[in-house]
Design brief:
This protein has helices at about 1-15, 30-40, 70, 75-85, 95-105, 130-135, 140-150, 195-215, 230-245, 300-310, 330-345, and strands at about 45, 110-115, 155-160, 220-225, 250, 260-265, 275-280, 315-320, 365, 375, 380-385, 390-395, 400-405, 410-415, 425-430, 430-435, 450-455. By secondary structure, the chain is α/β, with parallel strands linked by helices.
């Protein structure tokens, strides 16, 4: 079983992995090489930060707003631009943000360069609707973040809202009965007069070019909301990115299946995939800073999400929403610190790991003793792999015995990562392996049992 998984992984790595690719643009070698760091990284930081952060989720007494503030609070563009003039994040410290990410064990950072409000969070030469020309802040935060990432060995990546822009008069959204449902209909009410190609030429292409030529190596350009972009425009944009930065990864939201990897937003798929994918998840109920939202996930639940995702072959892009002053909220920082402490001891069971080796559908199902199928998602553990090792991540401490499906290689040693309690006793048969666990649970948010296997 384990041998078969290794053979499959080898075949995938050597095959034409052109997941959603234009064959005229990318060769299999290009794609495999470009994606390798992403496949190994497993864990990144998503940052939603902009003018909307200044409001902290509140507008006219309503407290459930977020990065869609301009739309959800029905703010005219002139009023929103006037509000943007008050944006002055004087406590922003790029090195501190990057250090928080690095100490958490994150390998890459994705920052909103332009969200749906059309406001560029950098000094854009092609649009005056940006932080340099409108706000009181006379610095380029993206430049500072890019430089800090490059200094600290973190991949710098940018988010760009592609098919929604509430500052531009030529951005229609929606189809059928939902025409215009995510457009700025206050300032630009006539959807039929809008021409996406004018916006594409006037703003999208110039700004993407700016991002790819002014901030050093870009690891990922993380597009959002492709909406009504045509296949020809997506292909043209992709070709430009490949020309400017051949190693830059593009997510699927460039549109028309032309991206390098899939995105799952706010959920973890039930099944895994050998194709590269990423799950982006918030730590509370909002992407952008919301001062009224105190419904925070626990560090343990976030680690379990990370483990579940990696066991299914994916990456976790975990979000933070800094304040309008430029501070990553204390609850976010505290959780990231605890996750980082766990990663110090258990990171080898995350970084560069393959998915679970047990059963079909990348381990979503395993055979029980009776021969029936049970779902891994309901089991109190997950598994990740490296050559010669299987890691069992415990979501619950076993009562005496940890029983896992059979492994067709000899188990040479079994032990808990980060604990010097010595080897654990194991009994191995063709259909199962039984590991005899200490009665006292290990002091870890998610303990990890490592199985070392014979060649």
């Amino acid at each position: 079983m384990y041998k078969n998984l290794c053979l499959i992984l080898l075949m995938v790595s050597l095959s034409n992995v052109t997941f959603g690719q234009d064959a005229n643009t990318d060769t299999a070698v290009d794609q495999t090489s470009r994606m390798q760091w992403f496949r190994d990284a497993k864990f990144g930081m998503f940052i939603h930060w902009g003018v909307y952060s200044q409001a902290g989720g509140e507008w006219n007494g309503e407290t459930n707003h977020h990065e869609w503030l301009q739309l959800t609070a029905k703010i005219p563009l002139a009023e929103y631009t006037a509000f943007a003039k008050t944006f002055n994040p004087t406590q922003f410290d790029a090195d501190q943000w990057v250090k928080i990410a690095k100490d958490a064990g994150m390998q890459y950072l994705v920052i909103t360069s332009k969200h749906h409000d059309g406001f560029a969070m950098y000094d854009s030469a092609s649009s005056g609707h940006d932080i340099a020309d409108v706000s009181k802040f006379d610095r380029d935060p993206l430049k500072e973040l890019a430089d800090a990432c490059h200094r600290h060995g973190i991949r710098f990546c940018v988010y760009y809202s592609l098919g929604r822009d509430w500052e531009d008069p030529d951005v229609p959204t929606g189809r059928g009965e939902k025409i215009g449902f995510r457009s700025n209909l206050i300032d630009f009410p006539n959807e039929s007069e809008k021409d996406f190609s004018r916006y594409f030429e006037r703003k999208v292409k110039p700004q993407v070019r700016e991002l790819l030529t002014g901030y050093g190596p870009i690891g990922i350009i993380w597009f959002d909301t492709y909406e009504l972009i045509s296949e020809e425009q997506s292909a043209e944009l992709k070709a430009m990115i490949r020309e400017l930065q051949p190693e830059c990864i593009i997510n699927q939201r460039i549109g028309h299946d032309l991206g390098d990897y899939k995105v799952s937003e706010q959920k973890i798929p039930e099944d895994g995939s050998y194709d590269p994918w990423e799950s982006c998840i918030t730590m509370n109920g909002h992407w952008a800073y919301n001062k009224a939202d105190s419904d925070w996930k626990t560090p343990q639940s976030i680690i379990q999400s990370l483990v579940d995702i990696v066991s299914k072959g994916g990456n976790l892009l975990l979000n933070v929403g800094p304040t309008g002053e430029g501070i990553i909220p204390e609850p976010s920082e505290k959780r990231l610190s605890e996750i980082g402490q766990w990663m110090v001891e258990n990171g080898e069971a995350i970084y560069a790991c393959g998915p679970t080796p047990f059963g079909e559908e990348l381990g979503r199902k395993v055979k029980s003793e009776s021969g029936k199928q049970s779902v891994v998602g309901k089991l109190p553990w997950r598994a990740t792999t490296k050559p010669g090792k299987i890691y069992i991540h415990l979501f619950e401490w076993p009562d005496g015995e940890l029983v896992i499906p059979g492994i067709d290689k000899e188990i040479l040693d079994v032990y808990l990562l980060g604990h010097k309690s010595g080897s654990l006793k194991v009994e191995q048969s063709a259909d199962r392996s039984t590991i005899f666990m200490p009665k006292t649970p290990a002091k870890s948010l998610v303990p990890v049992v490592c199985l070392e296997l014979a060649e």
